[in-house]
Protein: Molybdopterin molybdochelatase
Amino acid sequence: MHKEFHRLISLDKAIELALGDAPRPRVRIVNLESALGRVLAENVIAEIDVPHFDRAAMDGYAVRSEDCIIASESSPVRLRIVGSVSAGSIPDASAGPGEAVEVSTGSAMPEGADAVVMVEYADAADGYVMIRRPVHPYENVQRRGADLSLGERVLSAGTHLGPREIGMLAALGMSRVKIRSLRVGVASTGNEIQSPDEHLMPCKIYDVNTYTISSALSQIGAEPVVYGVFPDSYDALSESIATALIDCDMMILSGSTSAGRGDMLYRVVSDLGELVFHGINLKPGKPTLFGRVGGKHVIGLPGYPTSALTVFWQLVSPLVHRSLGLRSHHFSLKATLARPFRSESRRQMLPVIIHRGKAYPFDRGSGAVTTLGASDGIIDVPADREYLHAGEVFDVHPLSGDDLDLIISGESCPVLEAALDRMNLRFRYLVRGSMRALTDLQDGLADIACITATQELPEDLRVVASYRRELGLISRNPDLLLNSDGAAFAAWGRDSGVGCIMDSMLPGVRRSVEVRTHTGAALAVLQGKADLALGAREAAGMWGLHFRYLADDGISIVARMDDTRDIIKDIADALKERSQDAAVST
Amino acid sequence: MHKEFHRLISLDKAIELALGDAPRPRVRIVNLESALGRVLAENVIAEIDVPHFDRAAMDGYAVRSEDCIIASESSPVRLRIVGSVSAGSIPDASAGPGEAVEVSTGSAMPEGADAVVMVEYADAADGYVMIRRPVHPYENVQRRGADLSLGERVLSAGTHLGPREIGMLAALGMSRVKIRSLRVGVASTGNEIQSPDEHLMPCKIYDVNTYTISSALSQIGAEPVVYGVFPDSYDALSESIATALIDCDMMILSGSTSAGRGDMLYRVVSDLGELVFHGINLKPGKPTLFGRVGGKHVIGLPGYPTSALTVFWQLVSPLVHRSLGLRSHHFSLKATLARPFRSESRRQMLPVIIHRGKAYPFDRGSGAVTTLGASDGIIDVPADREYLHAGEVFDVHPLSGDDLDLIISGESCPVLEAALDRMNLRFRYLVRGSMRALTDLQDGLADIACITATQELPEDLRVVASYRRELGLISRNPDLLLNSDGAAFAAWGRDSGVGCIMDSMLPGVRRSVEVRTHTGAALAVLQGKADLALGAREAAGMWGLHFRYLADDGISIVARMDDTRDIIKDIADALKERSQDAAVST
Structure:
């Protein structure tokens, strides 16, 4: 019944096996407007000169340079103006000896003229122009083909098309372009998986991988074909894969790849074609499989979102790059590990939060989408490293280019959130108890900590703002606010400040759903998951719920003593204004 | 007739004026599949717990942890298997004292059980399972809401949606999402501009800016609306802009922005609305204008492609970022200036080639698309710097993420190009004379130089490969190969090796179109721009043209003495193989 992975192979071996025979892309013709981010399928050779005529590069007068050799401020040369050429027009005048033709930037040069005198050095009057400076041959003229010359290789097959490459193609008059197209089918498997457009049934979870993987494929220039959730039965899965491969060059599935019961992808792939490997000695990512069906690659990624995306970047992305003929870019940045980390004896892709140049291991488990959402990058920990020291410098493979202004750690507080929103700050809020928040602040992960005011502070920290918020009962039913006998309360975790207050003020009440934030407390009430919740007045206000004041709650915002940045001061100011507003409104 | 820019303002002032009143984006609802790269318009709060049930995190047996406290390898605990729960199913068994329920990763936890014993530590037989290790409460269980908790702020308005953010939305069951949409009309003006899908008329050039600017807008999350070429007459331009602004939130035009004759955009904008500034003290980018029509931003960029894209990144990109509520990212990298550079006394955006950590000023003029295509980045040179020294370190704003394997400088050679293509190398070929190529090689811009074999080498350079190629006459008409009297020849530049050979072997022939490459020589013949061309046999072969051998031409591939990289050796080997092939085939 229980099947082990028979041979775990290394990631390097897995990449070698997968890349050995990368799928051949198709060639498609697309309009220039749709070419951004795609990969060029052919060498582009200039079939015209650019420009394809000698072109004035300045506004002024087209002249014979030999006429102007002796021109100077003190003795200007006088030329007769015999016509003018506007940009885009075919010249109807030519410049004979002693003659000049008025031109604009971009005009075709008239016959006879070989230079342009800038308008700044020429005074025109009564059909003549006085030239005050000499010009040398071809001065201020962009010669035919000077930019791109007939036959020149302009772009090579395999080029990633960005704005400037698209501009080159436009300059050559190519309104359509051949690109490499790799159609990759994407599906999730598992009876517990539901599409996000359905109502969530009990014991099910929403499909994440289809969306992360197809977005990531788009980012690297492949064409995802989204199939959503494939049924998790042998026959249905076989048929779905076989059908999808008619239309796709490759297939990426996730889930159903471990070796346990009900995980049948490896059997399906073995039976439809050839299973090349099953199981990588990597954390996360062990349950990865790779095979070929009808000569096409089928990759099975782990079901956990973080694992799936990690293996995607490590294994699938190089494969797609190879297939499209792109070089794999291993963008990486250096970061100092902020906290020690104990690894396992296999290669590990360690998710980290990057903040102000330091890397903080962050792992709520690869099953958590939070790990996916909060990790800014990944450190590749070799199999032979057991203990990573704080202060060691590692290469980090970044997962996101977004910079945060601020990381807050500590108690949930809608007052603080609202202030940060008003300041238009990009922040991440790590909701956790006050003690843990102070540690986060001390080791630099957090910029400010939001703690209950009673907390004693270590020497290296300082309070930058303090305010009071009103805690009370939140309910849909005003009667319950007065008599809550038997009502189900939203339960706060005991590591939160509100959790402690709840224990002391409302001991022994019946508890239902657990919440971590004030907004969550109010939502639990709104959705009927709890009859009552303890929470801040602001949270009740978000959905117009009834509120009964019980007590004031003191909050302190804490920063490091040595952190004198403006942003800290600005937050303190924003919260002070709030205190004053509150004082006025009472 | 000639109008000067009245008040040039600084780039910083221009940015301040433009950003002061950034356009408000619309809010659109898109499917998750279309959300990649877009900007979130609302704070996303979890309206469900994720997972929304206690979930087995491993394959194994759901148990009451208290039953297993004493379990060990030597004295396992025996539990009765009372059922099994597959992932996605509602449990139909519960775990009473002394009982276990079989579960898979992702299964809902059955009533009564609070931990999962991994299958590795459990042996099942005859309806019982022997547990060989203790588990603590909630071990191997992902608790309801542990990942995302009801009410938790998951993403903030203004977040740039990448794969992982899209995954978070999917996990919450959001198949549609509100994004910020900024519709930006893009058009070029100028009577000399033609759309790339038309046949090129005399004295016209193809529209580049519409395509570079609209691609760049897509890259930063705006929605370009492509209008192509607007007519360059006052009435038509006024009407086109007014009509476009009905549908768009903002308009970007290029061309017609300088102060010369025929440049009327500033008049149109003044008359339709308000001209805020016209002219920035920046090189390139002086003829930039900014105004408002009906309260909407109208930006006029310079007509030259490099100038237009440079001002786009400096001025428009921050404006779009501000409008969408994104932080402007000033990604920059450090590079050492490889060659001294003399600047002007105004702020200058200097295009550079980045190669192996060094920055090489590269400027064929902002009118050249080559400048656009070859520049990997831009150095912002302050107005007060006149002379930049080689070796100084500057911040470079990168224009492309593509890495080159190789830069070649020197004589055009189809033999070398073909060898590099076979090696699947990403290269840039700077076609220039042998002398210049050796300088490029010495100062590190080029990795190899392709020179005529007769050249003497400086001490620090070495020949890594030599080969002979056959030069001859190329024609569509075989008769001309024997009697070329009066025929028009494609003209090679005199700084090229083939140009010198042409001067000595074919003195006094009539010359038509000028060419820089062998492919160009053959194309000139194919297109009838020349009757005959001197070129390599390989070039004639590309289009099946007739070829008459005239002489052998010796080519040397040169590298730096101290450059011992494998890539140099590989190129040498690839060219040696070719010599042997050639020897065999003769």
